[in-house]
User: Which sequence fits this backbone?
C-alpha cells in the first residue's frame, strides 16, 4: 500500500500553492528551470507547454517518492524568454530562478553543447544542488561524442552536464550519467521521451506513467469516438460512423503495439540488470495477455515476433527460477513463432537472429539435462543460422558476434568430448577474434561479455590439458575484467553471477598449484559476491546453487589449512542450500551434483575428525547419490562415483574394516572411465585409488605426470 501525503508537501519547504503565490520575501519557487540554446527555442516552447499542462494521474497524486509527495501539476516551469546579456555573467534573475528551482531540464543539442550560457546555467545549478536533479532531454546530436575522435561536432551534452560535482558544488573529473530522455523523434517516440522526463521529476517508474497515459488517452479517444459517432449519426449516417470507428481502432492498436514494443525494449533493458524476476515476469505476462486475445495464425509479422520475444523473456525467468520444464516449453513456443517468421521472410537477417536465440536456449537446456544428441543438433542449427546472417550482412558486427558465439560452442562441444588440445586451439582462435573486436570498441558491453566467456572456456581447456599456469593467467584476466565491469555498471547482476564461479575456479587453480592462501582469498571474495546478489533476489536458484558450491570449495580449503570449526560451519550452510534445491526438482543434474558434493564433503570432514561411523554413512549415501546422476558429462559423473567409492573405502578402513575397504576401492577403480584423456584432478583421483589398491608403479607414473605439469597434491604447500 502506498503511503499518502498532501501533494503540497512534494517540494517540502520549497513547495508553492497551486496559485503560484511567492513565499514571504517575494521569491518565486519553480518546479523546474528549462535551459536551452535559443536555436532550440521552438522545442523549448513545446516542452514548456507540455509540462505545465500535464495532469499527474490521480492514482499517483500523494504517493511518497524520493522527491517527496507527488503533486497534481508540474507548475510553474521557468523558461527564459529573452536573450541572455552580452556580459560575462548570468543575469541576477536567471541565478535566482536557478536557485529557486527543484529540477533543471537541459535541452541537449550540438548548439546547446557549444552554448556558454547553457553551460553556465548548469554550473550554477550544480553548485546549488550538487546531488543531482538535472534531467537531460536530447533533441539533436549524440551524447559523449566529444570523446570519439572525428565525431566531436555531434556532441549534444554541455561540458558541465558530462561531469559530476562534489558535495561542495565543485566540478570533478568523474563522468556523470544524467537521466536522459530522447526527444529527437516525433509522435509516440517523443511522447515516451516526455513521459520519461516526467517520471524522473516525480520519482516514479516510467511504466507507471506509460500505462496510465495510454489508458487515459484511450479513454479520451473513446469519448471523442463516441461524440463523433453521435455527430455522424445525425449528419452522415452509419457508413461514416463505421469509417471513424475503424480509424479509432487502428489508432488504439498502434498505441497498444507501441506500448508492447516499449515493454519488450526499454523497460526490459532497465529491469534485467536489477535482477528482479517478478518484474520481468510481469512484463512478459502483460504482453502475452495482449496477444492472447488474438488468433496467432492471423498475427502480423511484427506481432508474431513481439509475441515470441515475450515468450522468450518468460522462459528466461522460468529458467532462473529453476523451472526447466516451463522454460523448455516457453522457449519451444517462442522458437515455433520465430520459425514461422523466418518462413515468411527467409532472407531477413534480424528474423534469423531472433530465431537463432531461441534455438540456442533450447539446446542449452537440453545440454544441462544431459540430452547430448538433441543439444548437439540444436547447436549445429544455431551455427548454420549464424552463417546465414553474416552471408546477408557481412559487415554487421552483431551478426559477426553470433558467428563468434557459434565457434565458441563448437569448442565447448570438443571440451565435453574430452578433446582437450583441440578445444584449446579452438578457444585460442575465438579469443583472438573477440580480443580484436573488444579492443576496437571497448565501450561495447556485449563484446566485453563475450570476452569474459571466451576467457573462461579457454582457461578450462588449458586446465584440462594440464597447462595450469596458462589457465591461471586467463582466469586472473577474466576476474579482473569482471570485477571492473561489475563495479562500473553499478552492480549489474549479469557480471556478478559470472564473477562467482570465475573466482571459485581461480581459487581451485591456486590450490592445485599449492598456493592455499590466495585460494582461500578468492573463495571468500566469491562468497561475498554471491551473498550480495541474493540480497537482490533471494529466490534465484542459480545464485543459491553458486553460493552452495562456493561454500563447499571454501570449506575444503579451510580444512586443509586446519580451520576445522569454520569449515564445518560452511559445509552445514552449503548442504542446507543444496538439499533444498534438490528437494525442489531432483531431475536437475546440477542439483544432483550439489547434493552429491555435500555428502562427499561431509564424509571427508567426518574422516578428518575420526568420526568413522558418520564417515561410512555419508560416503555410502554419496555413492547412492552419484549412481543416480545422469548429466551432460557422463565421464565426469563416473569420476564422481569413483571418488565416492574411494571415500567409502577410506571410511571403512578407518573404521577397522580392511576387507570392506578394499572392496570399495576396487569398485572405485571399476567406476573410472576407460579414457586416455584425463584432466589433472581426474588423474589425481586415479592415482589415489591405484595407490590404495597397492598398484604402486602405476600410481608412481601418474604422480610423475602430475609433478611435471605442476599439479601439487591438495594439502601440500608450494614452498612447503
Assistant:
Amino acid at each position: 500500500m502506498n503511503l499518502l501525503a498532501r501533494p503540497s508537501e512534494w517540494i517540502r519547504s520549497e513547495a508553492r500553492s497551486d496559485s503560484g503565490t511567492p513565499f514571504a520575501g517575494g521569491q518565486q519557487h519553480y518546479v523546474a528551470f528549462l535551459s536551452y540554446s535559443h536555436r532550440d527555442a521552438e522545442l523549448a516552447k513545446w516542452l514548456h507547454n507540455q509540462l505545465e499542462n500535464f495532469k499527474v494521474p490521480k492514482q499517483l497524486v500523494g504517493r511518497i517518492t524520493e522527491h517527496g509527495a507527488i503533486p497534481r501539476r508540474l507548475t510553474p516551469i521557468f523558461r527564459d524568454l529573452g536573450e541572455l546579456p552580452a556580459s560575462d555573467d548570468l543575469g541576477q534573475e536567471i541565478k535566482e530562478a536557478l536557485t529557486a528551482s527543484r529540477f533543471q531540464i537541459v535541452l541537449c543539442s550540438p548548439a546547446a553543447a557549444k552554448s556558454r550560457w547553457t553551460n553556465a546555467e548548469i554550473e550554477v545549478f550544480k553548485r546549488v544542488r550538487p546531488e543531482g536533479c538535472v534531467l537531460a532531454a536530447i533533441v539533436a546530436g549524440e551524447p559523449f561524442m566529444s570523446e570519439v575522435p572525428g565525431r566531436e561536432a555531434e556532441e549534444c551534452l554541455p561540458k558541465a552536464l558530462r561531469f559530476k560535482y562534489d558535495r561542495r558544488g565543485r566540478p570533478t573529473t568523474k563522468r556523470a550519467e544524467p537521466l536522459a530522455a530522447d526527444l529527437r523523434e516525433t509522435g509516440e517516440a517523443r511522447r515516451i521521451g516526455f513521459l520519461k522526463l516526467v517520471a524522473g521529476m516525480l520519482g516514479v517508474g516510467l511504466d507507471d506513467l506509460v500505462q496510465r497515459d495510454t489508458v487515459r488517452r484511450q479513454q479520451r479517444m473513446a469519448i471523442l469516438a463516441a461524440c463523433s459517432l453521435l455527430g455522424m449519426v445525425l449528419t452522415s449516417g452509419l457508413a461514416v460512423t463505421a469509417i471513424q470507428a475503424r480509424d479509432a481502432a487502428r489508432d488504439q492498436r498502434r498505441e497498444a503495439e507501441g506500448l508492447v514494443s516499449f515493454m519488450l525494449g526499454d523497460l526490459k533493458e532497465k529491469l534485467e540488470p536489477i535482477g528482479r524476476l517478478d518484474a520481468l515476469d510481469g512484463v512478459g505476462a502483460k504482453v502475452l495477455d495482449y496477444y492472447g486475445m488474438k488468433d496467432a495464425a492471423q498475427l502480423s509479422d511484427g506481432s508474431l515476433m513481439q509475441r515470441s520475444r515475450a515468450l522468450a523473456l518468460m522462459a528466461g525467468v522460468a529458467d532462473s527460477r529453476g523451472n526447466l520444464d516451463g522454460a523448455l516449453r516457453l522457449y519451444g513456443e517462442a522458437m515455433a513463432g520465430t520459425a514461422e517468421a523466418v518462413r515468411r521472410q527467409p532472407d531477413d537477417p534480424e528474423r534469423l537472429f531472433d530465431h537463432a536465440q531461441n534455438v540456442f536456449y533450447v539446446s542449452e537446456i537440453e545440454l544441462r539435462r544431459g540430452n547430448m544428441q538433441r543439444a548437439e543438433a540444436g547447436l549445429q542449427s544455431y551455427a548454420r543460422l549464424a552463417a546465414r546472417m553474416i552471408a546477408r550482412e557481412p559487415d554487421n558486427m552483431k551478426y559477426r558476434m553470433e558467428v563468434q558465439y557459434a565457434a565458441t560452442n563448437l569448442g565447448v562441444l570438443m571440451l565435453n568430448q574430452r578433446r582437450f588440445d583441440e578445444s584449446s586451439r579452438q578457444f585460442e582462435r575465438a579469443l583472438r577474434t573477440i580480443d580484436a573486436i573488444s579492443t576496437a570498441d571497448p565501450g561495447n558491453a556485449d563484446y566485453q561479455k563475450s570476452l569474459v566467456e571466451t576467457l573462461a572456456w579457454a582457461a578450462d581447456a588449458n586446465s584440462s590439458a594440464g597447462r595450469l599456469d596458462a589457465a591461471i593467467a586467463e582466469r586472473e584476466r577474466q576476474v579482473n575484467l569482471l570485477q571492473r565491469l561489475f563495479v562500473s555498471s553499478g552492480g549489474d547482476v549479469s557480471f556478478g553471477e559470472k564473477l562467482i564461479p570465475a573466482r571459485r575456479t581461480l581459487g581451485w587453480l591456486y590450490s592445485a598449484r599449492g598456493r592455499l592462501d590466495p585460494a582461500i582469498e578468492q573463495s571468500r571474495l566469491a562468497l561475498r559476491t554471491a551473498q550480495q546478489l541474493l540480497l537482490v533476489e533471494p529466490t534465484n536458484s542459480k545464485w543459491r546453487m553458486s553460493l552452495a558450491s562456493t561454500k563447499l570449495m571454501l570449506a575444503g580449503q579451510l580444512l586443509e589449512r586446519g580451520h576445522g570449526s569454520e569449515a564445518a560451519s560452511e559445509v552445514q550452510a552449503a548442504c542446507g542450500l543444496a538439499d533444498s534445491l534438490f528437494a525442489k526438482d531432483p531431475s536437475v543434474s546440477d542439483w544432483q551434483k550439489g547434493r552429491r558434493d555435500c555428502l562427499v564433503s561431509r564424509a571427508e570432514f567426518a574422516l578428518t575428525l575420526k568420526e568413522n561411523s558418520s564417515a561410512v554413512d555419508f560416503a555410502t549415501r554419496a555413492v547412492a547419490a552419484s549412481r543416480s546422476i545422469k548429466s551432460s558429462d557422463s565421464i565426469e559423473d563416473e569420476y564422481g562415483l569413483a571418488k565416492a567409492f574411494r571415500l567409502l573405502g577410506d571410511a571403512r578402513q578407518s573404521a577397522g574394516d580392511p576387507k570392506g575397504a578394499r572392496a570399495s576401492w576396487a569398485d572405485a577403480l571399476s567406476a573410472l572411465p576407460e579414457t586416455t584423456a584425463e584432466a589433472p584432478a581426474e588423474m589425481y583421483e586415479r592415482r589415489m585409488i591405484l595407490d590404495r589398491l597397492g598398484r604402486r608403479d602405476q600410481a608412481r607414473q601418474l604422480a610423475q605426470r602430475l609433478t611435471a605439469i605442476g599439479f601439487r597434491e591438495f594439502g601440500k604447500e608450494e614452498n612447503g
User: Anything to note?
Assistant: The CA atoms of residues 114 and 158 lie 7 Å apart.
